Amino acid sequence: MQSMKQANEHQPSTPELAEHIDSQAAAWFARLRADSVTPEEKAAFAHWLQEAPAHQQAFDEICALWADPLLRQALKAAAQPPSSPNDKAGQRFWYPLFMLACLALLSVVYNGLGMSS
Question: What is the rounded end-to-end Cα distance, in angstroms, of the chain?
Answer without folding.
Answer: 26
